[in-house]
Hints:
There is one protein chain. The chain has helices spanning about 90-105, 110-115, 190-195, 325-330, and strands at about 10, 20-25, 45-50, 60, 80-85, 115-120, 125, 130-135, 145-150, 165-170, 180, 185-190, 200-205, 215-225, 230-240, 245, 250-255, 260, 270, 280-290, 295-300, 305-310, 315. Helix 1 packs antiparallel against helix 2 (about 110-115). The chain has 4 helices and 23 strands. By secondary structure, the protein is mainly beta. The chain has 2 domains: about 10-170, no CATH class; about 180-340, Hedgehog/Intein (Hint) domain (Endonuclease - Pi-scei, Chain A, domain 1), CATH 2.170.16.10. It is globular.
Amino acid sequence: xxxxxxxxxxxxxxxxxxxxxxxxxxxxxxxxxxxxxxxxxxxxxxxxxxxxxxxxxxxxxxxxxxxxxxxxxxxxxxxxxxxxxxxxxxxxxxxxxxxxxxxxxxxxxxxxxxxxxxxxxxxxxxxxxxxxxxxxxxxxxxxxxxxxxxxxxxxxxxxxxxxxxxxxxxxxxxxxxxxxxxxxxxxxxxxxxxxxxxxxxxxxxxxxxxxxxxxxxxxxxxxxxxxxxxxxxxxxxxxxxxxxxxxxxxxxxxxxxxxxxxxxxxxxxxxxxxxxxxxxxxxxxxxxxxxxxxxxxxxxxxxxxxxxxxxxxxxxxxxxxxxxxxxxxxxxxxxxxxxxxxx
Length: 343
């Protein structure tokens, strides 16, 4: 079995229910749960340790002689995650970079597993759109980073001198003036990110299409562009006069209560307002925005708690562009506000 960094085990007892078991990585050919045969995506190998003491959640064990990763953590210590327009990778490219970084012990393999997989019903499930590390120069100012792409240099076993692990890349989608509903009323997303506002209003656990309820949710992270750059923006204008400006892959709730990408909506479709009413889309215009775009993620991983209010409409948090992405792509698994609304 080919393992990442020799044999480094990430223990997920309690998180996964595997008693005294370590999670290692295979080479994508074993076909065990979590792997895709022939894909290069890692298998998940459960290795029992007889006589080992009961491990704790997410504990890292280094075998004798194991070396720490080249970069134990990213250089940027900001509480904000980043959208990496100058190092944009699709899901397959993201996985390839993660595997390279893990196999060569460039970043901690525990993070490779964490970004490749989510734990659902005590089983690892591959993330449809994983996070990935960005490398480049670092002088303490992220907007001056010059990106270094390992794919352009033959995927070497080490990141060369003068380059560091700079940040973790995610998707993000609101233009800065868009108003999100916080526990203290509406606030522009750029101001909320700047102030690291701690809580927002999200859809409530018992919300129904015609009977919406809301709850206060803590914000785990804000996301912002690293540098000012050009972004394609969809400008929605609704029959009520309401407006919403987002990137094409931002997620919104349509008239069926399904989470869909903004680019899939058409004139005549509807968005859902905070009172539960449907607001038909009268026009969708494409424009270019130069600057930064933003997003956020609540601390909760509950799907309803990741439906946030922007400009008075129900929209998806950044989880729907990352680990919840497969809920959008497969319409049979589209997320409804409530099961009673399934057509």
